[in-house]
Amino acid sequence: SAQREMSDISLQLEHEYPATNRGLSTSVISLRKQLLGDSRLAIFVLASGVAILLLITCANVAGLMIARAAKHEREAAVRVALGASRIELLRQGLAESFVLSFGGSVLGVIFALGSMPVMRHFVPQTIAAWAHPEVNWTVLLFTVLVGATAALVFGLFGQNAAAVRPQEALSQGSRGSTDTKQRLRSTLVTAEIALTTIILTSTGLLGGTFWQLAHTDLGFNPDFILSMRTELPVSAQTPYHQFSARVSFYKRVLDRVEHLPGVKSAGYTTFLPFTNPGGSTTVLIQGAPPLPIGNVNDVGMRVVTTKYFRTLAIPLLEGRTFYEADGENKTPLVVINQKMAQQYWPNGEAIGRQFRFDDPGTPWMTVIGIVGNVRQTNVETPSRAEMYFSYEQDLGIPGYFKPRDLAIKVSGDPESYANEVEHSIWSVDPSQPVSDIQSMRHLVNARNESYILEAKLFTFFSCTALLISALGIYGLMSYSVTRRTQEIGIRMALGAQREQILTSFITAACRLLLIGLMLGAIGSVVATRLLGSMLYGISGVGWGVGVLPLLVLSVSVALAAYIPARRAGTIDPMQALRSE
């Protein structure tokens, strides 16, 4: 309702003031979305990872239950022949399934309770402030419902798959029922491999995103930088209402801070990177043709002190930055970033060119230098056209654009300098509030906390899924060796070599692996599209993201299959022929 009303207002303003409001609209969002962003997709992806892990586990348990039922097949057939009903056998199997599910759920809850301190450490503060991680009755009820549902569904599947046929089970040498159960277990293992492929690929995508974020050029160096905020009051009742008083405060603070041992340089700015997108204004470029009605040159703006660029290691590409004497210059001077230079002076002639605010009566400003682009909002958002003004030049900019953020370049741990810097500020003005004290590296990492959390959780999911899948293929091969002991003995007695026996089992495992990888590749394509909006710097499943996880899975499955296959190759034919 609010969005509709604001859209109508925007259309009315566009109709009444086409020169300034054409193409402008209003977006209404909730406060929760403003603070947390659109986290629904991230939560859904994490929940999908948990669900895949649950499915892999259930498939493995179902396969083990089928194997167990096959082992006791003849016993169950005798019971049926003596009058036991199938419902009684089904009830017994479901009871075993529920006992396994209940035991696993209890152990899981105990593990979850013990891991809460670690979980709270990993959850980003912005999320923990709204959703404090804890094991409450809602979580316990959800766990009970999921455990009961898993026990019922996969317990019924396992029992139906292992349904007893008395005549076949009691017939000596009949292998039809056993072969059917073997195929069902093979199908479950193939499904495990496919699901593991999906979760491994998703982990590779999120890991690749984290790598891209960590190695993206920010345009500045956040290491060894201490940041804090000293916002000056500018009301008429305060001394900082006067421009000269504010300039004096900045100069005195910077002078005392820079004389502290270990401090290399310091600088003030309106907004430090990653704290605020910054303000913007429209400008008119001298000599440029008039813009069409409704179009404007919107440029970001910041006010900085002399050593701000040096403190954050923002590179100077051309010209120069500000000097202390620039404040006495009658012609306003400005430093622009590379994006603005390329956008408005593409021929490389920005130095010495002039522009002014899109406001009659404002003076023309001269470009004296070009600095590198800085990602001001976050890692994902590219730089826009920006201009920097000297804190000593009074251009009539509203008080909102006064410098407030202080950055200090130090030679050691930034946060260890906090107390000394605070006392230096209070020596200038004892009543000045100081807030948001943190290192720039921590500030940058905080913007990537959600990616880090997702990457860590999916890494845990992947390792667990890989382990379960390897156990599944190991159990299947080991079960197959046990069931085919006599067959192996006969083949070896007739002249089969141990290498041939080993190769046959490895080939069977590789066949399941290949089918599972093919199905998993299809699911990975779907997962990639689902994760699309959460990825940065990755357009799809590349060689590094796709092939490396598959190699890890293939090696794990091969090793899991080799152990029982090697045991099959060492079977003594005489003992195998005597086994039952």
Describe this structure in words.
With 580 residues, this protein is of the alpha+beta class. The chain contains 20 helices and eleven strands. A six-stranded mixed barrel has the order 3-4-9-6-8-7. It is elongated, with a radius of gyration of 34 Å. The protein starts with a helix and ends with a helix. The mean pLDDT is 81.
Shape: elongated
How many strand segments?
Answer: 11
Give the % helix: 55-70%
Relative strand content: 5-15%
Question: Mean of residue pLDDT?
Answer: 81
Gap between N and C termini, in Å? 76 Å
Tally of separate helices? 20
Largest sheet: 6 strands, mixed, barrel
Q: Based on helices, strands and strand pairing, what is the structural class? A: alpha+beta
Biggest sheet strand order reads 3-4-9-6-8-7
Q: What oligomeric state best describes the polypeptide chains here?
A: single chain
Give me the Rg, rounded. Answer: 34 Å
- Uncertain ranges: none
Question: What is the fold's blueprint, element by element?
Answer:
Elements: H1 2-16, H2 18-21, H3 31-36, H4 40-71, H5 73-81, H6 86-122, H7 125-128, H8 137-161, H9 166-170, H10 176-214, E1 225-229, H11 243-258, E2 263-269, E3 279-285, E4 297-304, H12 308-311, E5 316-319, E6 333-337, H13 338-344, E7 354-357, E8 365-371, E9 386-390, E10 405-410, H14 418-428, E11 435-439, H15 440-446, H16 449-483, H17 485-493, H18 498-530, H19 543-569, H20 573-578
Parallel strand pairs: 4-9, 6-8
Antiparallel strand pairs: 1-10, 1-11, 2-10, 3-4, 3-7, 5-8, 6-9, 7-8
Helix pairs in contact: 4-8, 4-10, 4-16, 6-8, 10-16, 10-18, 10-19, 11-14, 16-19, 18-19
